[in-house]
Design a protein that fits this description.
Largest sheet: 6 strands, mixed
Distance between the termini: 13 Å
Number of helices: 6
Strand order of the largest sheet: 6-7-8-3-9-10
Shape: globular
Bound molecules: adenosine-5'-diphosphate, magnesium ion
C-alpha cells in the first residue's frame, strides 16, 4: 500500500498570547495520518487535543511550521479556499451532535450537499444511503427530539459521511452518551473505517476508547509524546493485519 498522508504536520506550533502570557497550545508537533487509519488523539485536559483538531480540520492555522492536507499546504490558502477544502474533503462529528432541531434526520443529513449544490433528488438518495450506512433509514423522517442520543449521533455521522469525505474528524463523539451507546457508536466508526476505508481522527479523553482504534496519538503539554498502535487492540485489530481488499481509495 502506498503511504498516502491525508494529514501531515511539520513542526507545527500554535501559540496564544505573547510574552508572559504566552501559551504553546501545540509545540513543534510532527504527525502524519495516513489514508485508511483510525487514529485516536488522546491526552489530559489542556494537552492540545482541540487545538490539533482545529488545525487538522482547517478551522485554524499554525503559528509556526507547516500543515499539509492531502499534499496541499493549508497555510497558503485563504479563508474561502480553506472553507471549500473543508466542505469537499472533511466530515465533522461533535460531542453535542449539532443537528438542526426542527428538521428531519434526512434533511439534516442532506445539508452538506445543499452547500455543494447537489440537485434535490440526488441529495435525497445520497442522504438515505448514508442513513442506511448508520442503520437509521427507518428514522429518516423523525426530528432530533424524537431520537435517542445514540441515534442523534448516528444521524450526525451520516451527515458527516454524505459528502464522501477523505477524513472524518470526531471531537469526543461519545462524550454525551451512556456506555452501551458509546460502544454502539465506536463499533459503527470501526465498521465505517474497516468496510469503507474511511480515514478517521477522533479526539477522546476516555482511555477505554483506544481499544477500537488502529493508532493512538498521545499529547502532553502541546507535544506529541506517543504515537503507537495500542498493545491491547481487541476489536479493530491493527491496521496491518486487515485485508487490503477492505480498504478503498478515498
Ligand atoms: P485540550 O483540548 O487537550 O483540552 P486545548 O487544545 O483546548 O486542550 O488547549 C491547549 C492549551 O491552549 C490550554 O492551555 C488552553 O488553555 C490553551 N488555549 C486553547 N485555546 C486558546 C485560546 N483561544 N486562547 C488562549 N489559550 C488557549
Ligand atoms: Mg478540548
Amino acid at each position: 500500500m502506498t503511504t498516502f498522508a491525508v494529514v501531515e504536520f511539520k513542526g507545527v506550533s500554535k501559540i496564544y498570547g505573547a510574552g508572559d502570557t504566552e501559551v504553546r497550545a501545540l509545540d513543534g508537533v510532527d504527525m502524519r495520518i495516513h489514508r485508511g487509519e483510525f487514529v485516536a488523539i488522546m491526552g489530559s485536559s489542556g494537552s492540545g487535543k482541540s487545538t490539533a483538531m482545529n488545525l487538522i480540520g482547517c478551522l485554524d492555522l499554525p503559528t509556526l511550521g507547516a500543515y499539509e492536507f492531502r499534499g496541499v499546504n493549508v497555510c497558503e490558502l485563504d479563508a474561502d479556499q480553506r472553507a471549500l477544502l473543508r466542505r469537499m474533503y472533511i466530515g465533522f462529528v461533535f460531542q453535542g451532535f449539532n443537528l438542526l432541531a426542527r428538521t428531519s434526520a434526512v434533511e439534516n443529513v442532506e445539508l452538506p450537499l445543499v452547500y455543494r449544490r447537489v440537485p434535490a433528488r440526488e441529495r435525497r438518495e445520497r442522504a438515505m444511503e448514508s442513513l442506511r450506512a448508520v442503520g437509521l433509514e427507518n428514522r429518516a423522517h423523525h426530528t432530533p427530539s424524537e431520537l435517542s442520543g445514540g441515534q442523534q449521533q448516528r444521524v450526525a455521522i451520516a451527515r458527516a459521511l454524505v459528502s464522501d469525505p477523505s477524513l472524518l474528524l470526531a471531537d469526543e463523539p461519545t462524550g454525551n452518551l451512556d456506555s452501551p451507546r458509546k460502544r454502539e457508536i465506536m463499533e459503527l466508526l470501526v465498521r465505517l473505517n474497516e468496510e469503507r476505508g474511511i480515514t478517521i481522527a477522533m479526539v477522546t479523553h476516555e482511555p477505554d476508547m483506544s481499544v477500537y482504534v488502529s493508532r493512538v496519538a498521545m499529547f502532553k503539554d502541546g507535544k506529541l509524546v506517543g504515537d503507537d498502535a495500542p498493545e491491547h487492540v481487541t476489536f479493530a485489530g491493527p491496521l496491518s493485519t486487515r485485508p487490503l481488499s477492505s480498504r478503498q481509495s478515498s
